[in-house]
Amino acid sequence: MGWEWETVQHLDLRHAGGRRGAGAPARPLQPHAAAFRASQAIVAVAVGTHVVEFDALTGSKIALVDLGARVVRMAYSPTSSHVIIAILEDATIRSCDFATEQTLVLHSPEKKTDHVSIDTEVHLALTPLEPIVFFGFHKRMSVTVVGTVEGGRPPTKIKTDLKKPIVNLACHPRLPVFYVAYAEGLVRAYNVQTYAVHYTLQLPVDSTIKLMGAGAFGFHPTLEWVFIGDRGGTLLAWDVSTERPNMIGITQAGSQPITSVSWLPTLKLLVTISKDGGLQVWKTRVIINNNRQPMETHFFERAAIETMDITKILTLQGGEAVYPLPRIKNLAVHPKFNLAAVIFQDMSATEAAKNKAAYTREGRRQLFAVLGSSGILAEHQLQAQLQEQHLKGQSKLTISDVARKAFLHSHFMEGHAKSGPISRLPLVTISDPSNLLRDIPVCQPFHLELNFFNQENRVVQYPVRAFYLDGFNLMAHNLSSGADNLYKKLYSTIPSNMECHPKYISYSPKQHMFLVVFELSGPSGVAHEVVLYWEQTDLQTVNSKGSSIKGRDATFLGPDDNQYAILEEDRTSLNLYNLKPIATKEALENNAAVLEEEENTFAENPTANPTQKQGPMQFTFESEVDRIFSSPQESSLLYVIPGKHIGLAKLLTGYRLSTDNGLSITTKTDGKKFIKLKPNETVLQVHWQTTLRGPVAGILTNQRVLIASADLDILSSSSTKYDRGLPSYRSMLWVGPALIFSSATAISMLGWDNKVRSILSTSFPRSVLLGALNDRLLLVNPTDINPRQKKGVEIRSCLVGLLEPLLIGFATMQQHFTQKIDLSEVLYQITSRFDSLRVTPKSLDILSKGPPVCGDLAVSLSQAGPQFTQIMRCNYAIKALRFSAALSILKDEFLRSRDYPQCPPTSHLFQRFRELGYACIK
């Protein structure tokens, strides 16, 4: 399954638009422009005469400004991140400051009768080096420059040196270069200050390709590449890093004019939009061969991404389809995140009524041709109906039956379906269904055991280093010094036509061994490989080489990690390898010696494996499995079938199949413990924690977070999403009894009482949890895309109070998962070890409702903390059934009140005495 366009969320714009008056239309308006902030997940949307700013991750509205006229073209100012520069229908240029919700007129037209419509081509260019804006009308002979701040540069009209019509404008995002595109395909680069000519981009005179002029510009974020989409449908790439720029790529994207060119930095892809709404995604490749001249026609290659299904985009995440389907007008792409906003053509009611019959015939033709979407029911809705009928026992229902129902539904919706406008703005992303965490760093988190704070010498033991991946480099972060070092280069060389992307990592501290899964994509397709690496534990051990085996997933088995399993590419074959049972120095040297003999690279013998002499034990799953995870039980592992269940597989030497030499592993759930998964739910991570009642697993899926026993009994589960990222959850970490997880906007914990409590908000939507160090949480975060930035990821820390998660964890665990522990001693050790000033009311609410020892602690913490009022302290004492403490608090208040010595029945203090009496009676 390849990459596909997915809807992250729909921004609700039904209550925004033009002025609401007595004669204003009741129907909502459709958004017609959008722009993203360069450094934050914030999007500005133009709808009617308003510009609305949203948080692109939570969907919350931040600000709304009425500009008085509709926006024709707009962009965020690169010199001031919270300011929008826009050209309006009244031909004025205005700046809109969302921080103050104020607008400023930068330029007014010479004639008050000048007016432009939304469909008029107006060119706008902003440079990050100066607070100025270049703008001009289509096919005019001059460009106007004006300052973007009050009292800045006055409007100046610039006559260009070429007497040709101007068809587009653009500024380089890093260099002081201003591009002017002329008719017939010529582009000239000027200095933004002196307007001196730097160079000219044009095809050779003898070229057979005829250009009509640039319709859109795009820029690479790190390389000096300029992408130009021509109005004749030609896509070009220029390398402007030298004094004489040279064309490095050219292809024909179609016959329609290209109106938008955008670079997706996280996926390294180029997206183009044509005037007819056609969307295409391109990969760029540079073949370096000294013996061959580079071919410009081989630079652009179509990416293996499914075409955007507009019905699916509109209906996913609680959206609704419109009839007939609209065309894409523009795609606003975030410059740093895998996020885009889709702007559709405004399908007016008259046009929809005129073309309804044609759209209906086309929908029916497609329906009978592929029995898929009819334009109203999307394919994912058809599949959901099939799955629902299958769960009800009606397994004889086929896709033809559902398609027939979709046809009848489509026929009915001809006169009843919503015909526009689209009052919600869909935010989309390119998702990899086989790796939902593709945009997020890969790391090996270090977890803290249940009683990590209760050591003999009262010193918390942390590991020496934490591991993460930067490309194909295994990096080590020293926890004491904070330094990052290259621990191992897992691949020495990679062919130029191959892309290497890390997916998963597993580390065994007992065996000192890494299992790293890489995705290798090339001209022949996508394959996976598992790199095995024994770390060097002794300076005298010179052998620390790695090896690789073909496989899509890998994990360790058993309590001592003395086995590891590799899931092969077909998703059904499993190979089990044995390791030395005790990770002594001799065992590590023996394992390293085996690796030295069987070392594998891209160049030679790709089928060899490091334990070929002993030979792996081969197993076969009855059905395809997506992921495998470790289990603390001997010779067992967890397997995941997406959308169906999580099961426990015992790797026993029985049930031999007659067709091959493998051993069969049943995936049927009859008579077995399993965890049922929701539709489209898949497991991302599984991490184990040891308790006095046995090991428990923290399970992170794309839809929820679970705590389960070793026998797959669900002990706790989350039920709500805290933001609308895709996927909703990113990483997970055990800190004693607290299961902490991260989403796109927050770090939260799942208590043992099925409740999720937020710890802190973050501004790192692509970060993952690495570990907890004292009162800090360590995060692995991708670095900002910058030409000077050599590192791909970095370590950041957030200061949090671990006292509250630990208190909530122990209190809820003892209440719902009772263990034989001295809770009073544990709570005393926690409160004496961590800062009690960080305690908040939500932790005291939980403690006061818990066992008696927790109630005593809640009362004492509330009385010791200056952040709590007397009213709060009294309430906690009542909840904890410590009525004497509550009475003493009320007595103290009464003695110091102005009503002493008589308390009137109408006073608030009297009512609190009455509440205490009622609580005593209950």
UniProtKB/TrEMBL annotation:
Keywords, ordered alphabetically: WD repeat
Origin superkingdom: Eukaryota
Annotated SUPFAM superfamilies: Tricorn protease domain 2, WD40 repeat-like
Keyword Transcription regulation attributed: no
WD repeats mapped onto the chain: 251-285
GO biological process, one term: autophagosome assembly
Protein name listed in UniProt: Transducin/WD40 repeat-like superfamily protein
Species, as recorded: Triticum turgidum subsp. durum
